[in-house]
Amino acid sequence: MKKLLCLIGSIAFIFLILSIGMKVMVVYKFSNAFLKEKVSNMVISSIKDNVSEIDNYSLIDIENKIKNNKSFNEVTDLYFDNLINDLENNTVTDDGVNEKIRTIVISNLNDIPSNYQKLIIDKINSIDFNRIYRNILGYLKEEVVKENTGYIKVFKTLTSLKYKIYAGLIIILVNIFLYLLVKEKIELIQIYGINFMILGGIFVVMSLLFRQILTFLASSMIGSNVSVSASFITVTGLVLFGLGYILLDIYDRKKAKK
To answer: Model-level pTM?
Structure first.
């Protein structure tokens, strides 16, 4: 019974980490390799076309601040949720992305000379940032979805909040049952130590496979070849392996004292 519970808990934990890791890695890559570039290009082009007197130093400063802004990850996360839902339901969602991007861009203009700020803000307010989203959605519907609908649906399922909640509940229940079943609580240290080391090894091996899968998914979404790192899963595996080793060492020491 204990082995079965460990197996169920381990499977749930694997899927939970993959669910978190997949979203984090693909969203991060999409944000850095595509969205920030597109937004900064739209902003700089608009400023150049309409505010000719602005100096190059200020333009470079605006561009760098946009590309280094971490708030774009939140927008990208929303992009992904909307894209997956629109692809599945054949809809076009306008969920405040335009305003979110506009707010991020304007918040990075504080250091720009005040005589430029109002002109630039007026031009930024006139930019339709939702056009980026509509272009991506149109591209995916035309070029990607026909062949890769299955991947997108799997991604949606594995990264959904409901999926994470189910996996988390299973892990909690497994741990409760293990605690009730194990008479000598010191055995729990050994059980967790062994499981963590096994899980660590699995994650390290899986990171190699998932790097290829996530690279394919991100490349399909962006429309050009990009490389997605699976370091999140690799690091998780190494941490678990190390933690498992420590727990087994603690168990051996406690056993030796007895």
So the answer is: 0.64
